[in-house]
């Protein structure tokens, strides 16, 4: 028996689209070429696979059975070819990515899941680090690349690095439900003057941006606690220690706490960016992960 892969793919397109002409358009063949391929397949099998009239194309019982079998066959074949291609392109190996905490919580889980689904030969390891350590590990080569908050206001921190913006984010006030600010739909930055603040510490990528907005609005912040992670901030605010300014990627608020979040106006934006060393190219595997992380914000509806 001399059934070709091309004949099977043509047959599957005709079966899927129920049309010789549409199948031909899809796979780049003339209608006569499609008809000839189907006829040759039927002749080779000695079976009628399709009943064709001037108005419709209908699968015979033999055609229905063949569709079920060939669907599994082609799926396995395509998977095997994809694996061979990835091996040939060296899209395999271990990739290590460091990301700031709020990015790790919201953006990176989708990237890890997508990488696992698309690249079975890539082992992606995620490092949850404050921004200072993300930049340090990118520069030292401990990680393949990082995800940070931009702009990098310190020129020394940005030296030797390439950044690619992927999404923007803004800030909200987080306070207890019984705090006076909780009763406003939006909160002006000036309203924070004199408030006791629980903020992310200076190692956070957001802290320099928040301090810049305070200076721009003439606010002298009263910072009573500085924490490394949003989870600690939530606990302190819920306990009544103070209120906080957090990026929206740190939301939603944890269940079980008496907290609300209100947007700050005018909007102050921060940028989430991929970062790598300028003098070192990414491996094929790391580049594949870079592309995945770059596209995740589009799935969140928050791309730049």
TrEMBL record:
SUPFAM superfamilies linked to this entry: Periplasmic binding protein-like II, Winged helix' DNA-binding domain
Domain of life, per lineage: Bacteria
Record's keyword annotation contains Ubl conjugation: no
Any single GO CC term annotated in Swiss-Prot or TrEMBL for this entry: cytosol
All residue ranges annotated as the HTH lysR-type domain in the record: 3-60
TM ranges: none
InterPro entries (UniProt xref): HTH-type_LysR_regulators (IPR050950), LysR_HTH_N (IPR000847), LysR_subst-bd (IPR005119), WH-like_DNA-bd_sf (IPR036388), WH_DNA-bd_sf (IPR036390)
GO molecular function, one term: DNA-binding transcription factor activity
Gene3D superfamilies xrefs: 3.40.190.290, Winged helix-like DNA-binding domain superfamily/Winged helix DNA-binding domain (1.10.10.10)
Keywords: DNA-binding, Transcription, Transcription regulation
Entry similarity comment: Belongs to the LysR transcriptional regulatory family.
Name used for this protein in its record: LysR family transcriptional regulator
